[in-house]
Amino acid sequence: AKDSLGQDLCLFDPAMDEDKRSRRQLAVDLRGAVERGEMRLLFQPQHSLKSGALIGYEALARWHHPVRGVVSPDIFIPIAEETGEIFAIGEWVLSEAARVAIHWPSHLKVAVNLSPVQFQQGDLLQRLIAVVLDAGVSTRQIEFEITESAIIADRTKALYILRRIKALGISIAIDDFGTGHSSLDTLHAFPFDKIKIDRFFLRQAATSSQAVAIVRAVLALGKSLDIPVLAEGIETEEQIAFLVAEGCEQGQGYYYGRPQNAPSREDLGRAFPPP
Ligand code: C2E
Ligand code: CA
Ligand code: CA
Ligand code: CA
């Protein structure tokens, strides 16, 4: 048998190690997972660090595998990117996020992750627009999170797409900043509305002066470009105090809340007192 990439599917080749075999099996199982209703969307709150006010939620996908149970996106997203299933998943995530956010007060945004592979889709823009229009949510309530790897393949095309997205009123955050290929050049050239610092740096900041220096440098960058910075992975009050002292404006992490089902009316009114 051949899969959609034309590769041989030998699920039970004894020479193939267990890991590779299970990945292959997941790739097979993932096909049609959206249509079968196996995807779920969780929402993790994002807050203003100073006032504690809720500013929005990041939408995070989960796959409920019929046998294995909940599969983490760190496992299935890379597989979906390889097989092309990411197109169906990405569209489902956006429509589900929009369907939920339409019930929120208009100042709350929903942040949706866009895979670099989705940028390869010729009609990405038309598809995104169709999904948002169909849901009827204001484009002002949508934010896309992209990593720099989305830009690398074709900078000119990526810039065109991002400008069109922004012209619709959708905002754009650069995700996992500081990891991978983040460069100053990109920050200047691209119309980002927010910088998200990867949670790795905050975790290291307690013990590493180098990590502290990186957090400071990113915050200085944000300030000089006049782009708000959101710190990921906030788990303690001490981290908030550190970030506020350094001038960071926004945060997300288990301290404020784990990824959860669509927020209730009560959740939407919650605020954390300033530290
Ligand atoms: P990400 O975009 O960097 O998302 C943040 C991840 O950090 C989430 O993991 C979240 O649950 C986790 N996290 C948040 N706060 C804390 C904290 O205080 N402590 C710790 N230890 N972790 C925290 P999750 O949900 O497992 O997602 C992993 C990655 O999978 C995401 O990283 C994102 O790159 C990808 N992903 C998730 N959903 C989607 C999606 O719908 N589309 C695409 N393309 N990628 C997605
Ligand atoms: Ca993200
Ligand atoms: Ca991130
Ligand atoms: Ca990440």
TrEMBL record:
Q: Which UniProt keywords apply?
A: Membrane, Transmembrane, Transmembrane helix
Covered part of the full sequence, start to end and full length, is 666 to 940 of 950
Taxonomically, which superkingdom?
Bacteria
Q: What is this protein called?
A: Diguanylate cyclase/phosphodiesterase with PAS/PAC and MHYT sensor
| The keyword tRNA-binding is assigned to this record | no
Q: What are the residue boundaries of the EAL domain, all occurrences included?
A: 23-273
Q: Which GO terms describe its cellular component?
A: membrane
